[in-house]
Model the fold of this input.
Amino acid sequence: MPATENKSAPLKKSITFISRAAPYGSNNPHLCLDMALACAVFEQDVNYVFLNDGVYQLLRNQKGASIESKTIGNVFETLELYGIDSVCVDEESLSQRGLRVEDLVIDVKLLSRQAIATLLHRSDCVFNL
Done:
């Protein structure tokens, strides 16, 4: 009698990335994005949350070339292609900076701080950059 193999499906984790930094001046926004995309490629459940100055990463019409940098906002348009459809923005951070959802390069879910706390609590892993 042949031995049976245990071919269980890979364990899918809920991984949340919090991006807090302005789009230029440090490499944290790019590191966060690269990690989120890598997790999505391995079919993990990825949540991407923008807090504080991180909301500036999502602004339309950025021109990173003028400061000899890649324009990070352009890459966010590809998140859905990677299966990252849970992109959330802290509504308080957006409001404090005088920004509106219409100013952003992609569609996002506006969340309260309490809703973000709940999302983080339900996540298997959280990366905070």
User: Anything to note?
Assistant: The longest strand covers residues 14-19. The domain at 14-128 is CATH 3.40.1260.10 (Hypothetical Protein Ychn; Chain: A,). Strands lie at 14-19, 45-50, 86-90, 109-111, 125-128.
